[in-house]
Design a protein that fits this description.
Blueprint lengths: L5 E8 L14 E4 L23 E7 L11 E6 L10 E6 L9 E10 L21 E4 L8 E5 L6 E10 L5 E6 L21 E5 L19 E4 L6 E3 L4 E5 L7 E10 L5 E9 L8 E4 L7 E4 L5 E5 L2 E3 L14 E7 L5 E5 L2 E2 L11 E6 L12 E9 L5 H12 L1 H4 L1 E2 L3 E2 L9
Antiparallel strand pairs: 1-2, 1-3, 3-4, 5-10, 5-26, 5-27, 6-9, 7-10, 8-9, 11-25, 12-15, 13-14, 14-25, 15-24, 16-21, 16-25, 17-18, 17-24, 18-19, 19-20, 21-22, 22-23
Length: 426
């Protein structure tokens, strides 16, 4: 028993990493006055590393103004709770349709789960109601992958966005795992925007079923509210849900809770799936600013998308889009810090001339071309995305192919299941 507080020093080592595999501990602990001992807490961190095996934490007391007895050291083992064999079902997904020559980092790939996969059944999930036991890992099963479930539908297809660390060539693959009764709570990264951490500033899926609510899936949380929209305005889109605007009401649009401003001379990319109707008014927009006719991404009088920055119209696109209320078209623009603008339609460079602008670009409305309601969008909108980086041609082409031709871009294997241990006796 001590008469005063006594600081006892120690070293910490082992195969586990201090501050990574467990909450960081220092090199000293204090035994309070009148006490005979003190606890050194080793609190494991539930990381996203898989199949690490057990990792040791070794502690050894150091000499000081006290007598060290025996034993003078101790060791604990942190057991790995992410062993892929603990998940009873798995399927391999290979992105054979990627034809780009570059490597895409943290690419958000759409994975569709349902009858498109041989031997797939929601009944094999430990949490079939919400897919809480679903996990994704890299090809060698050493790292868990961030993902977001956009739509979970046990009666049909479920849509999941998985962040691929590196997409390169036609052999990049991942594993989807499920069927673990001990892991039925979805990880925090499924809802905190981690799946969109690779340069995305805002992502609107338009999959909400509650009229009036529009959520941004990134950590930025540029959420918004819709005007005059009803449940019937949420229709099947190119990817899961979409908004169908101004076909049964007027002045249907989305107002962001706070403006999204892309600063002057900053890099950015804006993309969207659009399905305009034949009677779409000139200048009807995918998005626009609050400053009257200042900033917008819209359809011009020649049925071509164009960009308007700081009240200056930039006819960036070469070709028109189909306006029949049926056909979905993917459009995108990128802007480099030097002002160079490039335009893409269905993942192909469609730039007209040498458009350029370094002015700032402000966004307050989705589905509107000017502040007034006379230039609201009419038709479908899906997957509006804003990035704070310049997306490459390979990136935009991969987005187009992965979303419009998922069965060609993704090759899904056959689901295999662990049903127990097989012992062979020869």
């Amino acid at each position: 028993m001590t008469n005063a507080d006594l600081a006892v020093n120690y070293t910490i080592g082992g195969t586990a990493s201090n501050g990574a595999d467990y909450t960081a501990v220092g090199g000293s602990v204090t035994i309070p006055a009148g006490a005979t001992n003190a606890n050194i807490l080793i609190i494991p961190v539930d990381d996203n590393m898989w199949n690490e095996g057990g990792e040791a934490v070794a502690l050894t007391l150091l000499q000081g103004g006290y007598i060290i007895g025996s034993p003078s050291n101790g060791m604990v083992t942190i057991e790995d709770n992410d062993q892929s064999a603990a998940w009873s079902s798995r399927v391999k997904i290979t992105f054979t349709g990627f034809a780009g020559g570059s490597t895409l980092t943290n690419f958000p790939a759409l994975v569709i789960l349902g009858t498109n996969i041989a031997n797939f059944s929601y009944s094999t999930f430990a949490a079939p109601a919400n897919g809480g036991d679903l996990r994704f890992v890299n090809s060698n099963e050493t790292t868990g992958l961030n993902y977001e479930i956009e739509q979970w539908n046990i009666g049909g297809s479920s849509y999941v966005w998985v962040q691929i660390p590196e997409l390169s060539g036609t052999n990049t693959s991942i594993w989807a795992l499920w069927g673990n009764a001990g892991k039925t709570n979805p990880p925090a990264f499924t809802t905190n925007g981690s799946a969109w951490s690779g340069g995305y500033g805002a992502v609107w899926h338009f999959s909400e079923t509650q009229p009036g609510v529009v959520n941004d899936s990134t950590a930025s949380r540029y959420n918004g509210s819709s005007t005059n929209m009803e449940a019937g305005d949420q229709l099947a889109g190119l990817v899961d849900g979409s908004f169908d605007l101004n076909n049964d009401e007027t002045n249907e649009a989305v107002t962001l809770d706070s403006n999204f401003t892309l600063p002057a001379s900053s890099a950015f990319s804006i993309s969207a799936w659009i399905r305009p109707t034949a009677d779409l008014l000139d200048y009807a927009g995918v998005l626009c600013s609050s400053g009257g006719d200042g900033d917008s991404f819209r359809i011009w009088t020649d049925d071509k998308p164009n960009f308007r920055i700081n009240a200056v119209t930039i006819p960036a696109f070469t070709s028109a889009v189909i306006m029949d209320g049926v056909t979905w078209t993917h459009i995108a623009v990128t802007r480099a810090p030097d002002g160079t603008i490039k335009a893409y339609k269905n993942g192909i460079d469609d730039t007209s001339g040498t458009p350029s602008s370094t002015a700032n670009f402000d966004i307050e409305y989705l589905g509107r071309g000017t502040t007034g309601d006379s230039r609201n969008w009419k038709g479908g909108l899906d997957e509006i995305r804003i990035s704070t980086v310049v997306r490459s041609a390979d990136w935009l082409r991969a987005c187009y192919m992965n979303q419009s031709a998922n069965a060609l871009f993704n090759t899904y294997g056959r689901v295999t299941r662990y049903s127990g241990t097989v012992i062979l006796i020869k």
